Amino acid sequence: MLTEAEVAPEEMPHQQDDGPSNLNSFSTVATGLHGYEAALLMKSIRLHSDKKIYLIADNEAFNLLCDDMPKNVNTTIISEKEKLEREAEYKASPDTIWPSCPKFPNLWNPASQSYKMDVMSKAIKSSGNTLFLDADVILVNPVDCKFSSSVALSKHNGVCGGGYVYANDPSFPDSWKELYNRELRAKTDGGVVHSCGKCGDIPTVKLKGNHKPSLFGATHNLGPWRSPRPFAGAEVGEIMESLGLSVDDDIYIDDGDGPEKVVSFHVHLRPKDEQADESYNLVRSFYECLLRSAKSTHKQLMDFICNVYLPNAFRLKLGEANTLRV
């Protein structure tokens, strides 16, 4: 986890959502069994946009996604040889993980994180700009941002996460990869890791180059970090109210400046055991929002979840423990 001071020395400008959108593409990474989550992400994108999706996947994830792959997806398959080489390059030991990291020991393989930079680089070179989304992001409305900065990030708990990143600067993915590599290996003189780096968090003040990020607002990337832990007897309406969520003709969130349409959730619908508590309330609220909404795309999304995604997720046993390979 990075401190607020490491993330940004001054307030980043807010990224406006009033359009018209100048987003050219989306990008994501799918690896292993849990790569199937990208099926729901891509379905949610296609309900709101026909822009190209750039996907990097290993063979296991690609085979799981084949039947649910939408049109206009540019796919790069990671070979087994490439996976082994990348794992050797980004090899980490549990002994090198910052002990205070709140995500320890539930960390993804750091090699898998590095593919984010690769898919963004390809998308920017081919399409001019891209919005990278983790496979467990779900769009519920179009991304109507008119991007004016070269990079836009999403902050949670004072950290700019690596799971929701816009860029149009071809040099940004390389800058991020260099920083990620450096943070992964960083140690103090006493041998204690300075920052784990495994989760791909972006300390913007350490990025090389002239990157001046803007910041997505509360309508984007609504994740468990905003959600209270479960408590006995809580009704879903009470939980939604605590999150600032409401539903009418659409799904709205009020972060203090009046209701705005929610653009995206970021949550595992089939979380692993160690993620269940933090995800529980948000998953309940997400389903309730879709059920209450009168919007046709939300009905279509719910139909896909019930009839396609969840049956496959149960069959694949998504949510089982996933350990860090070292």
- Encode the helix/strand succession as letters: HEHEHEHHEEEEHEHEEEEHH
First and last CA, distance: 20 Å
CATH first level: which class?
A: Alpha Beta
Q: Write down how many β-strands occur, each being a DSSP E stretch of 2 or more residues.
A: 12
Instruction: State the helix count.
Output: 9
Residue stretches low in confidence (pLDDT < 50, at least 5 long) are 1-9, 322-326
The spatial strand order of the largest sheet comes to: 3-2-1-4-7-6-8
Q: Please, what is the CATH homologous superfamily?
A: Spore Coat Polysaccharide Biosynthesis Protein SpsA, Chain A
What Rg, in angstroms, do the CA atoms define? 19 Å
What overall geometry do the principal axes of the alpha carbons give? globular
Structural class: alpha/beta
The average pLDDT score comes to 85
Q: Give the helix level as a range of percent.
A: 25-40%
Count of domains: 1
State which percent range the strand residues make up: 15-25%
Largest sheet: 7 strands, mixed
CATH topology: Spore Coat Polysaccharide Biosynthesis Protein SpsA, Chain A
